[in-house]
Amino acid sequence: MKKNIRNLTEQEKLNSLQKILTLSELIKSYQMLSDNKTYYGFVAQDIELIYPDKVTEKVLLSSHQREMNETEIINTEVIKFVENPIDDVDIILSINELKEENALLKTELCKVNPLYAFC
Predict the structure, then answer these.
(1) Cβ proximity of 67 and 55 under 8 Å
(2) DSSP assignment of 13-66
(3) Are the beta carbons of 29 and 38 closer than 8 angstroms?
(4) Beta strand pairing status for 28-31 and 38-41?
(5) What residues have CB less than 8 Å from 29, skipping those under 6 apart?
(6) What are the Cα distances from residue 93, in Å, to 26, 32, 89, 96, 102?
(7) Domain coordinates of the chain in residue numbers?
(8) What are 34-46's pLDDT values in tens digits?
């Protein structure tokens, strides 16, 4: 039985969306030595930066390997987001685009005058 059920705050929704967007940027393609097929997924070291509690380390034949449950990680954020949608996702995406543009403009301005406070 579930208890302490509550709606997410707007900040929690934003955090989930940001994590989903970050996860989408971390997807890699790779091939396994055993079958040479192409797979898509995550590298545990990347995921560990966002979800340190979801990545475990084990020792196999004197080498350390990290492992994770990709499905659990993706489901965690997608379910949070789908069950508690943000009123206007386009606004959030636009904010992220503006942040990127702002960072680029700051970089260009710092080339012109490195004494600006944000350089």
Answers:
(1) yes
(2) HHHHHHHHHHHHHH-EEEE-TTT--EEEE--HHHHHHH-GGGEEEEEETTEEEE
(3) yes
(4) antiparallel
(5) 38, 39, 40
(6) 18, 35, 6, 5, 14
(7) 10-86, 88-119
(8) 888 888 877 888 8
Q: Cβ neighbours of residue 116 under 8 Å, at least 6 residues apart?
A: 106, 109, 110
* pLDDT tens by residue, 47-97: 888 878 878 887 766 677 777 776 677 767 776 666 666 666 667 777 888
Q: How confident is the model at residue 32 (pLDDT cuts 50, 70, 90)?
A: confident
Assess contact for 20 and 14: CB atoms under 8 A.
no
Interatomic CA distance for residues 53 and 40, integer angstroms: 22
Residue 13: count of CB within 10 angstroms of its CB: 20
Residue 114, C-beta contacts closer than 8 angstroms, at least 6 positions apart:
none
Q: Is the pTM of this model over 0.90?
A: no
Closest Cα partner for 19 from 80, 109, 64, 63? 80
Q: Is 78 helix (H, G, I), strand (E, B) or coil?
A: helix
